[in-house]
Amino acid sequence: MRQFIQGIAENSHYQATHLLQILRQIQSRYHYIPEAAIEQLSGLLNIPRTQIIGVVEFYSFFHLAPRGQYELLISDSITDHMLGKKDLFDYLAKKLDVAVGEVREDGVVSLDNTSCTGMCDQGPAGLVNGLALTRLDQSGIDKIAELINQQKPLDEWPEELFQVDDNIYKSGLLLNQQIEQGAALRSAFKRGIKETLKEIDYSGLRGRGGAGFKTAIKWQFCSEEQQTERYVVCNADEGEPGTFKDRVLLNAYADQVFEGMTVCAAIIGAKQGFLYLRGEYLHLYDKLQSILEQRRQNSLLGNNILDTGLDFDIEICLGAGAYICGEESALIESLEGKAGIPRNRPPYPVTQGYLGKPTVVNNVETFLAAAGIAVNGSDWFANIGTEKSKGTKILSISGDCARPGIYEYPFGTTIQTILNDCGADDVLGVQVGGPSGTFISNQEFDRKLAFEDLATGGSFIIFNSSRNILDMVHNFAHFFAHESCGFCTPCRVGTSLLQKQIDKIVEGHGSAGDVVALEELCQLVKNYSHCGLGQTAANPILTTLERYPDLYQSRLKEISFEPGFDLDGALETARRMANRNDAGAHLAQTDASGSRPVASLPPSMAVGE
Amino acid sequence: MSKTITIDGKVIPFEDGQTIMDAAMAAGVYIPHLCHQPEFTPHGSCKLCTVKVNGRNCSACTYPAMDGQEVLNETQELIDDRKRITQMLFVEGNHLCPGCEKTGNCQLQAVAYHLNMLDNHFPAFYPEREVDASHPEVMIDHNRCIFCTLCVRASHEKDGKDVFAISGRGIHKHLIVNAESGLLKDTDMAATDHAAHICPTGAILIKRTGYQVPIGERIYDHKEIDQVSLATEHLKHGE
Fold this sequence. Notes:
The complex is a heterodimer. Chain A has 26 helices and 15 strands. Chain A is α/β, with parallel strands linked by helices.
């Protein structure tokens, strides 16, 4: 092991900024991060051991205790649940003889849940040693269980288990254009760099991650900073449940994305770029590396690009299972090899980003659009869309519809049009923008896709009338509690409190006042949290509470007081310790009149009969 | 003309580079806080110092003062919500004041009194947390840690040691120490370190000193935290 770690540290030039990438390799080889590795790395990278442990314990894909040689993770997105995840998960656990969250006794396999893996159009999905598994069904699970029990290496597993489809059903402005490699850069240089920035400005392009900051202004701010060492970062940490368009863009349009990054580098004067790729998209890594290599061969990356004097290269950094790293300053922290904790702002990344230097962070789709604008000019883009939302938006559509997949629409398109196209009938509502977005009911399908109406990073989850909205809210509440980085009090404690309060209501332990308390808590978490995660974590509750107040009220008990937990369940430990299981060792949740809990006394203790 | 902001209508001067907290403290205006101490790099995590700046919630300890800002500090809404945030800190750990030797000297308790907190409001989490009494002079009671990182910053910035760090994610966050055994006795911690004396709660304690000052004669037994804070911290803000 010493030699192995020495080797990877050397390849990383002993830079602590590469800690995540180093730990990924150790986890992949040993299926945990051994104590000895931490000790050795601490010396080699010259950082305290606590810093390494802090990173290991922050990211879901790193472990201090051994996991199985086959680390199986099953996606826990609401879309996987809608496709029958729970039964499959139970079947898988039984078939492999391993409990959820545990490692099988022989150490061969471990099983656990993971947040949405971005395969919502082809779920239920999972990961085995980081590689995407799609369309899981009973026969697939039988196969997987057999392969694991035979301890077959992953490269001998049948390819269809790992098959990932693009499922592009509707192409528009961006997906229709096939730019020749290098064309955007050539156009940009021919037109002039400053003029290209103007074109991007005139195009009205706004960030595609959801927040919608004007791209040209961000690039201009960055280019005007005094510090001349600047960076371009492409945010491919597509973690919002229900979003998978970046996966498709990087599979089918990567050249154009890299081209957009290079145009940005020319404009802001950056020499180094990063593609921060979520760990769940490991299956794309080799392909993307070879595209980068090819671009270097063709003088589109590296020194003196296309003889223009521009030096720029792109490095791919993989994430390790943390939704928060989609937040731009958390992503930068992660790129620096640290836990993904959002920074205090100001300063913003355009002034102090990666290593404290001016940095542009944009979404995959934004760079793709920028490349298109560099080739075709601003009108090509600005002529489409609405006044405030120019161009098109690429949606990831999943849930209850005939054709889940990728759809590109001009901004201003109505929800009803989208539902018609993807074959969605009997729709109850749509979650637009993922858990952090908005739930709209079937009374609002004339609303439009636009920053000024329904802004979205691209997630579009459809629910038909057979679904229970509270199941969705419950799933999202658990998601946010799991993904909160824990930095600030309102989000760290608040998302856990929200989870508990929703559990209480959904499980039927809620009583009068509990919905009011829930709403108060939502406002607190929303208004006081440090970053977008906490500020949006209550959205699923707030947007459904607004539309379906009766749904929440109907779950409450009629009585004035209901214990907030299962009283009898809480006695389980005491019963075990006392070795008792008679009637007197049990407690009813409430007495018949519903006023207070009572114990049913055993006959021997009943008095005055 | 020097630059000014207003806090609840009161005009307060500031210098470039000062945060809203710096300016407020220098002018004798108390903004509740737990994770902030003027000697250390501001952290902005406890969110008790949230103020409304031109209508937006901001952490006073990290947000730069800028000319003309209208800051709201003591509104009923902010006071109520700060109380809720304090209650969150109480329920996520195990804070049992009557049995804690820090009572009366504890900033968490004092802030709670200041905000008129009379109950937990939220259901308690009762997490299972350990006590590390391995070190001969200093002990850690993890039940009382609020993840303010003051000990982390003090150890790094003042002691030059890196004894502490925060590890884990979300509600599973926890304080760790820099030793293979994970125990304080195997670190280079000394009772004279700044980090040993900075804890705003009773999570890091010097052994055998707990009751040298009797209950009833402690810092916050006779003075509110705003008075104490302004008297002891504001000078340091001027530095």
